[in-house]
Amino acid sequence: MNWRKPAAYIVTACNTLAASGVFADVNKVEEVIVSASRTNKPITAIPNTVKVIDREALESQLATSTSLLDGLSFAVPSLTPAHQKMTSNGVTLRGRTPLYMADGIPQSTPLRNGERSGFTIDPAFIDRVEVIYGANAIQGVGATGGVINYVTVDAPESGDLLQKVATRLTSDNFEGDGFHYKLSGLLGKKFDNTDVVFGVAHDVQDLYYDGNGDPIAVDPIQGDTMDSRTWNIFTKAGLDLDEYQRIEVTGNYFDLDGDGDYRVVDGDALAGIPATSESGKGEGDPTYNEALNLSVAYSHANLFGGELTLQGFYYDFYALYGGGTFPAFQDPAIAPAGTLFDQSALSSEKYGTKLTFVRDNTFWDGLQVASGVDYLRDKTYQELAQTDRLWVPEMIYKGWAPFVQLEQRLVDDRLRLSFGGRFENVELEVPDFTTVAGANNTFVEGGEPSFEELLGNAGIVFDVTEDLTVFASYAEGFTMPDAGLILRGVNIPGQTIDELVDLQPVVADNLETGINYRRGGLDLAASYFWSDSDLGSRILVVDGVGQITRQKTEIEGLEVSAAYHFDSGVSTGIAYSQLEGRFDSDGDGSVDKDLDGRNIAPDRINLYVEAPLAANWHGRLQYARLLDRDFDGGLPQHDFDGYGLLDAVISYRNEQLGDFTLGIENLLDEEYITYYSQTLTYVNDSTYFAGRGRAVSLGWQKTF
Predict the structure, then answer these.
(1) Amino acid 362: pLDDT
(2) How far apart are the C-alpha atoms of 404 and 357, rounded to whole Å?
(3) CB–CB of 275/217 below 8 Å?
(4) Which of 602, 601, 609 is CA-nearest to residue 574?
């Protein structure tokens, strides 16, 4: 890995004292608790890179972003830039797939990755976002890249009535089809021993325009946040049984429906001409997402000297995708070859339980023991919606996993040593099935492949001084390969489920070391990580349809940030992220080619400055520079020509009138082709997308 170029950027970064600007207040960092760690640990006690994006920082990003996932792409530099579409296709964290969660409920669909996991809850109901970087098994299956946990809002502890109304109007070109609006409301109150929150959000998006003033193409396959309407209903209720015991029930229903008012006008990918949109209905039905989350949680804060939490959850997800006359969809028994249009739909239904017991000073002073067991059942299938055919058979994942995590505090709590393990017991049930005609109507004998895996971790955190902390860790995480892609493509007779080696899990190792330094208004952080998987999973797309290939992968990266908070209220900073990934293309056990843009985010530099402008006025400028990247072993047309985007936010707060925000995305109206469209090998003339040009948003919110 060539560190000379990054070193130059790092020196420049530190000299200019800029940073990502989305951290919790540096003076409060010790108080920030990360619930996604399963033990409610402070950030400084976790031997990994961890980021908590609080509500204020989240609103700064949402002021200029079309979606929650788009906003996170600036807040988390090693997260692949979002596509400004209704998809997380190719969005990775540190080069691997993150596990998306909402209040601990897994939103991901690992058995048939629908790439919609980032679009299941409206950001109006999110209090903070917790990001744990790197492969880990803390939350079970799916976190080979890390964990992104959305923590929802609670009723005010003060007992005051929460009444919050927010609205936003956005325009790309100040013409009729370039206007978008959103309205949300929250009610909440804490009574003597009960509390309740209820919220509704409605979001309407029309066309986006690029820097040349042309309408951006709607995504004909993955779906789009453009030309869509979203409804979200959220509720949470809690009952304090006594001083220590509590029961909490949470429900969230999310529905994002495409309107289908526009169709794609092909561009020319080889000539660098992006696709656009025109009025008119495309083929098939509009794409949509529908997601339901339900959770019941019980906690006891003083049981045998420890804390018990028990959560039961249910998640139901259904997504419709765009279609085409792809070879895989053809069936001469239905229509002449080459003429049959179809579109796929994904269904994933899961339920499970999580039991955790944490006790401090167990056996002797300073030893914390966390133990528990998780159970998950996931039923997933994929159908061809227009012809009512089953494309991916009903797969049932059953997994249970006991775990133990130990942490010993030493040297007046300045040194923390941790280690633990999680024993995964997984069974995948697949019935006998016959593939569709596009895969030769091949019969496949069902089976119940299973595996057992002990996933370990170890870490150390040492407070060298009150200002300087160093850490190092090793952790393993696992996920299932995209089993649906494997099964639907079987076209050779005589195969059985138990013989398909590609159904073996993806186990990724993550080795990380880093430092954090805080003194006065200065906040510095740096980390290096290395990750590998002996049997990784890469997706290839052939004739518009994905296929799985299992290959050894290695990924390494460097992340550096610096920020300074002046007494005057001015803050400025920089964040730098570099990633490099390689895979074994010829199966000789040695990596020899670069992973492509579907797996690896571009190297990037994020700069920001924010300051009070006048009484009740506040301003922020942020700049993201995505650096050029050439992919060794790839075709030159899939190399990345970087670009830079400047955003601006001005806010005004008035106790009587409420809070007003003016957000300008892509302030300089830069014309660019998205990272997704430049680097993914299967992008064609209809999916070669320009990025969004200048978009102006005016927001207002009032808390009564």
Answers:
(1) 94
(2) 10
(3) yes
(4) 609
Name 615's Cβ contacts closer than 8 Å, sequence gap at least 6: none
Q: What is the pLDDT of residue 29?
A: 42
Which tokens go with 666? 């892509």
518, 519, 524, 530: CA torsion to nearest 10? -40
Q: Per residue in 281-337, pLDDT tens?
A: 988 999 999 999 999 999 999 999 999 999 999 999 999 999 999 999 999 999 999
Whether the per-residue pLDDT at 14 is higher than 50: the answer is no
Going by C-alpha positions, the residue among 109, 152, 102, 70 that lies closest to residue 318 is 109
pLDDT in tens, 609-662: 999 999 999 999 999 999 999 999 888 889 999 999 999 999 999 999 999 999
Joined tokens for residue 491 = 């076209």
Nearest-angstrom CA–CA distance, 437 and 330: 7
Query: Rounded to two decimals, what is the model's pTM?
Result: 0.92
How far, in Å, CA of 658 to CA of 642, rounded? 39
Helix pair 68-75, 55-62: axis angle to 10 deg:
110
Residues 267/275, Cβ–Cβ less than 8 Å: yes
Counting other chains too, the contacts that 309-314 makes at CB distance below 8 Å and 24 or more residues apart are: 309/354, 309/355, 309/356, 309/357, 310/353, 310/354, 310/355, 310/356, 311/104, 311/353, 311/354, 312/351, 312/352, 312/353, 313/104, 313/105, 313/351, 313/352, 313/353, 313/354, 314/350, 314/351
Task: Compare 481 and 99 and report the one with higher pLDDT.
Answer: 99
- Mapping DSSP onto H, E and C, the string for 86-139 reads CCCCCCCECCECEEEEECCEECCCHHHCCCCCCCCCCHHHEEEEEEEECCCCCC
Nearest of 673, 394, 503, 573 to residue 17 by alpha carbon: 573
Helix (H/G/I), strand (E/B), else coil: 618: strand
- At residue 73 the predicted structure's pLDDT band, cuts being 50, 70 and 90, is confident
d(CA 233, CA 210): 32
Neighbours of 474 (CB within 10 A): 18
Task: Determine the Cα–Cα distance for residues 83 and 14; give it in Å rounded to an integer.
Answer: 30
Q: How far apart, in whole angstroms, are the C-alpha atoms of residue 603 and residue 9? A: 11
Q: How many residues does the chain have?
A: 704
Beta bridge partners of 249: 237, 296
The encoded tokens of residue 600 equal 């690896």
CB-CB contact of 96 with 108 (8 Å): no
C-alpha to C-alpha distance for 671 and 403, rounded to whole angstroms: 50
pLDDT tens sequence across 243-295: 999 999 999 999 999 999 999 999 999 999 999 999 999 889 999 999 999 99
DSSP 390: E
How far apart (Å, rounded) are the C-alpha atoms in residues 307 and 359? 6
Secondary structure of 261-292 as H, E, C letters:
CEEEECCECCCCECCEEEECCCCCCCCEEEEE
